[in-house]
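Technical note accompanying the year-one report. For the benefit of new consortium partners, we illustrate the data format agreed upon in the data management plan: each record pairs a sequence with a structure-token string. No post-processing was applied to the example shown here.
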Amino acid sequence: MNDAGATTAGEPLAIICGGGSFPLAVADAAARSGRRVVLFPLKGWADAAAIKRYPHHWMGLAQFGRFCRFARQEGCRDVVIIGGVIRPTPLQLRPDLGTLRLLPRIVRLFRGGDDHLLSGIGRIFEEHGFRLLGAHEAAPAILIREGTLGQHQPTPRDVADAERGLALIAAIGPFDVGQAVVVGGNRVLAVEAAEGTDEMLAHLAALRRAGRIRHPAKTGVLVKAPKPEQDRRVDLPSIGTGTVAGAAAAGLAGIAVAADNVITADIAELVRAADVAGLFVIGVGPAGERTG
């Protein structure tokens, strides 16, 4: 893996911050490596209290001109985009002057899935002289590595379900669908789409309560992986303690992720939550290889 965060340690890093804990996790990791960090929190999404810890410039979703002005003023060339944002419609955008001339192109980017949109936005940053980094490049510690995390081990049946889930994500990837599926007893129980992982798991839990899914408790695996050809700089899948809680409520046995391709804000916290919930968490390597 190209550790761009290490090779550009002397340069300031701009982080465009959506919601959740990931923006600050990346900022803290980059700062520990010696980089100066400048945050660009998105209005309505970023955590205002946490943002105060670093130099910052608030911006709206369609204020690319404002970003360019302040990023250049701060000397930032490297940019990370991280954090949750619900996809708006083009009509909900309130572009600044620097974005208006890009608006026809941005509207065209909305005519596709999330990867199509985010990859296109990444190209716009690069055309304006910025270098877009994946959050994992600036903060490698957030990647989930190959192997079993925590005290609970998957069974051979769980591993088979995980491998089936990874194959399914690879198969549907060209349609730019979601990054998560649930497989139990070799049966596909759920596929993530626009609702996101948490809502998918909540729906699965409701189906189990209604008797629509009759697998015994601790059956089934949540599988997360990037889509093939996905731009990993802008949209790596993630899991956290909320994912563990959702998987437990849905009666699953554990969580499997594509090793080195899924991120978490705090691995120690994730492991503690999984141990308490009685779930396994594994990073699955190429061709289903794994280490215990």
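Partners are asked to follow this layout when depositing records. The longest strand covers residues 13-17.
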